[in-house]
Amino acid sequence: MGENLIQELAAAFTRFPGVGPRQAKRFVYFLLKSPPTNTERLARLIDELRRKISQCGDCRRFVDTVELQAKQCALCRHERRDHSLLLVVEKDIDVNQIERAGSYEGRYFVLGGLVPLLEDEPDKRIRLTELKKYLDRHEIKELIVALTANAEGDNTAEYLQQTLKKYEADGLVVTVLGRGLSSGIELEYSDPDTIKHALSGRIKIS
């Protein structure tokens, strides 16, 4: 029974990004050797995560529940931001990096993933339905696709452009970041200057 529990917990850890079976086992044995107060605190924090963190109804970021007003986070409510600009990123942490660069004043939308090449059901990989609802609710003039500069990121950008043609016909301009970003480097690992150059050099998807 005990060995099965170790295997089950290790299998759960392998679902974390970048964690393989060997590293997952190390996590389990680390927890077993830790003082009970540490594991109890970890269990409490995981439980509180679901109860105290909510998703913004607009940008889909995860934020502290107390920050939400009318299901909007502070960034989405900010009156001085340019509400005609929408920057689409893969992950919540990408928003943090772009905010740190200090060169973007519009709003955000978190896709929640990328579309792999040859994917049969791309809609299940990203929040496309939610993005369309966002565009239906708000008057967006430019949608900036800011994804990882790799095959999956390029494929996702192309898929978005194809599926948003209805909005382009109504005047929406879809652009992508300029290639200041190194190929294969995720946005979260890019430095502020690189992000600034990529934003200023963005180009329209034809």
From TrEMBL:
Q: Which InterPro entries match?
A: DNA_Rcmb_RecR, Rcmb_RecR, TOPRIM_dom
Q: Which UniProt keywords apply?
A: DNA damage, DNA recombination, DNA repair, Metal-binding, Zinc, Zinc-finger
Q: Which domain of life is it from?
A: Bacteria
Query: Which one GO biological process term can you cite for this protein?
Result: DNA repair
What GO molecular function annotations does the UniProt record carry, in alphabetical order? Answer: DNA binding; zinc ion binding
HAMAP family recorded = RecR
Protein purpose = May play a role in DNA repair. It seems to be involved in an RecBC-independent recombinational process of DNA repair. It may act with RecF and RecO.
Task: Quote the PANTHER family the UniProt record gives.
Answer: RECOMBINATION PROTEIN RECR
Query: What's this protein's name?
Result: Recombination protein RecR
Organism whose genome encodes this protein: Candidatus Vogelbacteria bacterium CG10_big_fil_rev_8_21_14_0_10_50_13
The major lineage groups are: Bacteria, Candidatus Vogeliibacteriota
Gene transcribed to yield this protein: recR
